[in-house]
Amino acid sequence: MLAQVIVNGILTGFVYSLVAVGLTLTWGVMDIINFAHGDFLLWGMYTAFGLWSVFSVDPIFSLPVTIVLIFLLGYLTYVLIIRRVLNASGLTALLATFGFSMVLKNIAQLVFTANYKNVTNTIFGGDTIKLGSIYIRHDYLAAAIGSLILSLLVLLFINKTKTGVAIKATSINRSTAQLMGINTDGIFAFTFGLSGACVGAAASLMVPFTPITPSSTALYSILAFVIVALGGFGNIKGALLAGLLVGVVESVGGYLLGTSFKYAVIFMMYLIVMQIRPKGLFGW
Amino acid sequence: MVKINKLFIENSFAFVLLALFIIVPLAVGENADIHNIIIYILIYALVGEGWNLISGFTGQTSFGHAAYFGIGAYTVAVMGNKYDVVPWVGMLAGMLIAAALAFLINYQLFRLKGHYFAIATLAVSEILRTIFSVWPYVGGGDGIKILFRPENKALWLAIDVRNRLPFLYITLALFVAVFVLCKMLENSKMGYYWKAIRESHEVAEAIGINPQNYKVYAMMLSAAIAAVGGGLYVQFFKYIDSYVFSLDVSMIFVLVTVLGGIGNVYGPIIGSIIYYVLDLAMRRLLGGTASGLNLIIFGILIIVVVVYQPKGIMGIFDDIVNRRRLRKLKASQATTNASSNQTGGDSK
Questions:
Q1: What φ, ψ does residue A131 adopt, rounded to 5°?
Q2: How far apart are CA A147 and CA A204, in angstroms?
Q3: What ipTM is given for this predicted complex?
Q4: CB of A143 closer than 8 Å to CB of A212
Q5: Whether CATH 1.10.3470 fits B31-333
Q6: Where are the domains positioned within chain A?
Q7: What's the pLDDT tens digit per position in B256-271?
Q8: Whether B310 contacts chain A with CB within 8 A
């Protein structure tokens, strides 16, 4: 039974990782706390739901659409809002994204109402694979593998491509990066878009097993905050591993102590880990 | 007499505000909606002042002030319902418990810096939220409904549905007390230490300030103030459950303070007024809250204010004052230049 719980934790952990990788890009690189991150996820899920219910497109095929759309949403968020508060104190930008989060959430509620929406009968469906005594649901597995691949792609992109290195340089020192001929404004806009793309992908991967309502993503954004801090700000590998850890701790903690304590266990773990590693598990 | 005059002139803005808060509730008559809004404005501004001490003056952002707000609220509720303790004593106890808790938790947590600390404060309030949602002593998931006690009405702390004025003025008095305390702290030695820590942890350390201790003092004071707000809130709202520990509640304190102007004693009250007046106006204009249309426009307004003036509403006032000073300075320079030119011309 415990093995089953751990496997479930790992599978959810990969999805948490992808959401957190998106958040760590903006938080780490630009030092902007994006409170609307969870609402990006929400809009990704509603997009996937809309495509499924109107055109009966399976979420796995709507993946590219949500990636592109939420990329654009992130890009526009930067261009229209964040750019104007970039030089103010961090809390000002936070307030702006908080206002934007309110707007996004309530438009979703206006359009889709507060009722739960479910995407059903997907290609991967609710069937299971049996490995010994462990059951693995197809849709969970697909979401986990998809999240892992995309997270690794982002990691690879940041470390190996020219744009990725420019993002890293900008995160280390903005003015020096500018002196090196990097268009930091463009980099910021692209990073915000990339952050959105991660969340958009996570949304499409999650919808087969996540009921959608305007408030359902609030928890994901709080968890993403904790994961990002746990992994060390701006550290993509850190976010990936911390997401996995949080998934497992949540699952095992919930199993041992009861489901009402599963999130408290995560927060407790954060406080304890931070006493030993005050800059996150993989921070420097 | 001169001293008193000076006090009035230097703080004329505060006295105008105070006069408004005394007169407006009387002027609107038996308007429960407006009285409610004013009470909310004062409670959240009061907690905002507390949040401002640690996050505005000392520079340690807290996303978990709901923890202390909730502790204050629960203390008043539990002591009142179970042991017949009057709310005044309950509030005092809540302050002490919140300050003690702030000491216990933050003495260790202040090793963390910046965002790592902010997320830790969020974690603390979320843990409290879980504990209070399952702890039978505090009502568990059902929360606590405040029992009505006639004797509290005589103490002006039980809200009377038909006459909210006594409670409103008690809240105002407590807010004024907190405001004066914060204003005094801002210009005290402690206040300067806090600001030194905010500007640079290392430099503060180098000039002989112990940042750890002063951050803990700020947090304890801040927590005690938040607990007072919580005590008032529960007397007003008459019901409490573990939702009070959520990030949504913590964010209100951040929101009103940053909207008004962080690190400014006028910030929380100005922000709170703007926040609730806009909220009320949107609800009045667009009807019920079910559609969420009012919140959409409200969100847009927040963005517009922040984008237009990143320093908050107080930033706009500062700009006006600075511009006027600059004009005066230029005018006086022009006259001195003119006179010096004259003398210069004479010597030639």
A1: -120, 100
A2: 10
A3: 0.88
A4: no
A5: yes
A6: 10-216
A7: 898 888 888 998 999 8
A8: yes
